[in-house]
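User: New here, any thoughts?
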Amino acid sequence: MNDDSAPHHLLVVDDDHDIRTLLAEQLGRAGYRVSTAADGAQMRQQLQRQAIDLVVLDLNLPREDGLTLCRDLRAQSSLPVIMLTARGEPIDRVLGLEMGADDYLAKPFEPRELLARIRNVLRRTQALPANLEPLTLRKARFQGWLFDLEHRHLIDPAGRVLVLSGAEYRLLKVFVSHPNKVLSREQLVMLSSGKPFDSQERAIDLQVSRLRAKFGQAGGSLIKTVRNEGYVLACTVAVE
């Protein structure tokens, strides 16, 4: 990835030349190295040619759309992705996150908001607490399931691959790092996002519910609710 002395390297993928140029200039002024691509083919060339720390990916691209590219990226790596789109429908945001995007921003947007989201995603993915996972942790097996941390997906007992959203991936990583340990909502929020916990905000409950849904009928028995305390991954986890 990126060491502390070097600027993060971003890849902006958008078929609009003016938008690519504008974002490259603005992100460059903010201290980032920036490369650009007009479509999926150019994106892959850039990723093969150099190390990239984060991709800013437009949803509405010719030939291969952003959702397809995001899904393919997520199947191969844990590279952070922020999706951009001119669409404003909630379903598009949900689809983007379900394909594995780490964040989502609708056009038009303030450049400062994109910068804030980039900084937040990079901080979340590259500056996680040291005790979140051992550096050698690549895979976790439990109850017939395989959680592939390198490729950021889940494989069910029948061998089917389930794509995880950014939030689902981070939350499951916290659970497999602390099996059979009750984690409070505050701990889950801090460990999965690095953000302070707002006692009035129960978004973490929705995230847990969505993660459980990935496991189908086994979800409720795997990730249990402990009344007045939080949640627990109630099983033995074997890690690689």
